[in-house]
Amino acid sequence: MSYQVDLTNCDREPIHIPGKIQSHGFLIAVNSKSYNISYISQNVESYTGINAIGLLGKNISELEEQLAIANDTASLQQLLKLAKGAKSSDTINPLAIDVKGTNYNLIISHSVNDLVLEFEPTESDLGGDIQKTIGRSVAEILSGKSLSLLLQKAASEIKKIINYDRVMIYKFNEDGHGEVTAEVKNDDLEPFLGLHYPASDIPKQARELYKINLTRIIADVNSESSAIITYEEGAAPLDLTHSVLRAVSPIHIQYLKNMGVDSSFSISLIAHGELWGLIACHNYSPRFIDYKSRDASKLIGQILSSALEYRQDEEELAKLHELGEAANTIADYIKKDTDFTFALTRNKVTIKDITTATGVALVYDEEITTIGQTPTEEQITEIVEWLKVNMVDTIYSTYRFPEIYPAAKNYSDVASGILSCSLSRELGEMIIWFKPEQVKAINWAGNPEKPVEETADGLLQLSPRKSFDSWTQIVKNTSEKWKHDEIAAVLKVREDVIFAINRKANEIRILNERLQLAYDELDTFSYTISHDLRTPLSSIKNYSELLLASNKSLDDSAKKMLERIIKGTDKMHMLIKEILHYSRVGRTNIEAAPIDMGLLLNEIKREVLSALKPESIEFTIGDTPGIDGDSVMITQVFTNLINNAVKYSSKSTPSKVKVEGIVRNNEIVYSVSDNGVGIDVNYYNRVFELFKRMDNALEFEGTGVGLAIVKRIVEKHKARIWFESKLGFGTVFYISFKIS
User: Fold this and answer.
1) Residue limits of the Histidine kinase domain (predicted)?
2) Helix 291-336 to helix 484-550 angle, to the nearest 10 degrees?
3) Residue 343 belongs to what H/E stretch?
4) Among 658, 608, 655, 666, which Cα is nearest to 635's?
5) For residue range 181-204, what is the model confidence (pLDDT) as tens digits?
C-alpha cells in the first residue's frame, strides 16, 4: 500500500510518543493514583544495576529502597504527592537526589494518568555557572536599539554563555518556512545567515512542542536511544510531551547528521503567544547542558521574547505612525484644495506615501494620474474594467495579481501586487496602488523538496535532505504582502476623499441653484433689454425714415445725418440680437446627432454667397467627414466662420475660400481658410473676446460678437478651436471634434 507523497508526511510523525528516551539519563513513570511503576526505560540497569523489567508494577517506595534514593528534604513519594498537587512542576524542579551514591537532577512532569520521573546527571559540559552571567548578558542583549541589532547581540551573548560552535536566531515566516536572521559562529564554519529552510524541516507538531518546552537539548545524535517498556500488553505509549529526555525523531537525527552536527540545543522565542522563532545552537561534537543551565537559558529566551516582541511592535508602530501621518497630511491637503487630483498627487506628500507601494494611479474625473512605477494608462484602464466586475467590496487587495488576472503577467515587474479602493462604482473612479514582483533569490539550505525514500515495509515517506548546497528559488508573479496598516491608511484616506467629494457635490448643487436663479434673472434682464431698447430704437428709425421721405426741403447734409441715424439704429438692433444670442448659447442644451457636413456646408455656402454677393470668389469645399453635434449650433459656427472668410477676403482678386475636413487619429479637424486681410499678431490673444475688433477690420461690417459665440459653442461640444494667420495673406480657423 502507498499514498501520495507530500510535505505533510513529516507532520504525521507522532513525535510526542516516540517510545524512547535519549540515553544521557533514565526514566521511570508511576501511576498518579497507586504510585506503582507503570513505565520504565530499559537503560535503568546501566545506571543502577537493577533490571528494568523487575521494577515494573512495584510501588515507588520499593524503588526508593532498592536504589537507595536519598533526598535531604522529603521521601520520593512525598515529592510525587507535592508534584501531583502542583499546577506546574517548575516550582520544584529540579530536585537534587542521590541514587546509589551518584548525584542526579530529578525532573518530575505529568503525563495523562502518570507522573514521569527523569533522572539526569548534575554535571555539565559548560565550564562555569550560567546563572552568574545572566545579568550581564541580558543587559548587553537589551542594549540593541533595533530588532536586527537586538537579535545579533542575543546570538553573540548566548554563544559566550554556552560556547556552542554555532548560535543562530531562526525566525518563522507566515507560511511556516524559517530564515536565519542572526548568527555567531566559529571562524572555520560556513555561514548560514540569510539561508531559508522549508516549513517541513520543523513540522507543525514539532513547533507546537516548542511552545510547551521552551528549551530542548540533543546531547549526542550518535548515541542509541533507550526504549520505554511497560508491563501492560497493548498499553498506549507513554506521552512524553513534557519530557526533557524525549527521544528525537529519526528523521531529525538524520537531518542533523547530514549537517555534520553532533549536538543541538534550542531556546524557544514566543511573541504574542505564538512561536516567533528559535535560538538554534549547533555543536560539532557531543555536548550536554545540565537542567539548571538550560533553565537559566530559558530565562534568557523569555526575556529576549519580551524584548523582540516590544521592538517588533515598536518598529511596526513607527511604520504605522508614518503611514498614518501621511494619511493625515493628505486629509489636510484635501480640505485646503478643491482640485482633488492636485491635492492627492502633486504635493510633497502624495497618496503613494500612505502605503509601501512603488506606484499609484488615481482614476478620477475621466482622467488617469500616476505616480511612481505603474502600468501604462491603457493597461490601467483594463485593470479598472476588471476591478469594476471583480471588486465586490470597496477595498480589494492581492499580492499575486498576475495569477488571478493573466494579462498582468505582461507587467508583473511593476504590478504583481495591487491594492484598490473605490471612490465611485458608477463612474469607475478609484485609486490603485502597485507593488512590484519580488523576483528575489531565496537561498534555501538545500533543495526544499525532500527526496522520497521507500521504508522497509514498502511505504513511501519523506527523508531528510542530503544536500545542503545553496539552492535558489525564484518567486515569480508575487509581491510583498499588503499589511493591515497599509489597508487601514487607505481606508482612512478613502473616507476623507469621499467626504470631500460629497462636500464638493453639495457645494456644486448650491452653486447650480444660484446659477439657475441667475439664469432666470438674466432671462428677465434680456427680455427687458429686448423690449425696452428695441421700442425706442424702432421709434427713432421710423421717425427718421418718415422725416427723410416726407421733408423735401432737407439739404444733403441733413439727409446724410438722417441716413446715419437709420444705419446706427439697424446696427444697434443687430448688436442687441447678437448679445442676447451670446447669453443664451451657454445655457442651451446640446441635442447631439450625426450631421451630414457636405449637405450643411453647401447650404451655408449658398446662403452666405447670396447675402454678401462677392464680385469674384473661388469657393472650394473639400472632404466633409460627418461629425456628431447639435445641428443648429454647428450651423451657427460654420456660418459665422464662412461669412467672415468671404467678408474679409472680399478685397482680394480673386477671393479664395476653402472648407475641408480630415480624419486624424481619434479626431476630425475642419479648417476654414481665406486669403483675406489676416490678423495682426498683436490681436492674437483677443480674437475670441467679446466686442474685440481689429483696426484693419473696422471698414468691414461686424459687431465683434460672432467669434465669441463660435468659441462658446465649440467648447460646449468639448471640441477645440484655434487659428493661423498672417497679416495681408489670410487666415485659417481649425476646429477639432473628438470621434465618439
Assistant:
1) 528-740
2) 0
3) helix 340-345
4) 608
5) 899 999 999 998 888 887 777 777
